[in-house]
Specification:
single chain; 142 residues; alpha/beta; three-stranded mixed β-sheet; two-stranded antiparallel ribbon; 19% strand; elongated
């Protein structure tokens, strides 16, 4: 029975998250919002994906240990050093970060289209694909 593309994407993201969990030590839960969306893509070059802090924070006087005063820090790092979740969805309407996420990630949904890298595709498996024209999704996301 064939699986819907959305299920394959989800499984690949979960695999990438499992890899990242082994690499990151934090006192706080790190929430990642991710989506497949149209990104820059042409016949011979493309943006596979991008990710970054959803919001940054700073402390003007005495920041948590490990952070510099009057310096913007990615929210995941700030939360870890502060040992608390600084931005929660209900209290975060002024930042535009309504989900409370720490990282926003986007991946190119156009990969595989005729005009996007000449027919290269996302591969959602966890092993090496047998074909050379595939980008291994969990390796790109992790």
């Amino acid at each position: 029975m064939a699986q819907m593309l959305g299920h394959k994407e989800s499984c690949s993201f979960i695999k990438a998250a499992e890899i990242l969990v082994e690499q990151i030590a934090s006192t706080q839960t790190i929430i990642v919002d991710s989506a497949f969306t149209a990104l820059t893509c042409g016949s011979d070059s493309a943006t596979l994906g991008s990710a970054g802090a959803s919001v940054s924070s700073y402390h003007p006087t005495t920041p948590p240990t490990g952070l510099d005063a009057n310096t913007w820090h990615p929210i995941g790092l700030f939360n870890d050093k502060a040992n608390s979740d600084t931005f929660l969805p209900a209290a975060d309407s002024y930042t535009g970060n309504a989900t409370g996420s720490d990282i926003n990630a986007k991946f190119n949904s156009d990969l595989g289209d005729a005009d996007c890298l000449n027919g290269n595709y996302w591969y959602y498996g966890y092993d090496a694909p047998l074909w050379k024209r595939y980008w291994v999704c969990y390796r790109v996301t992790s």
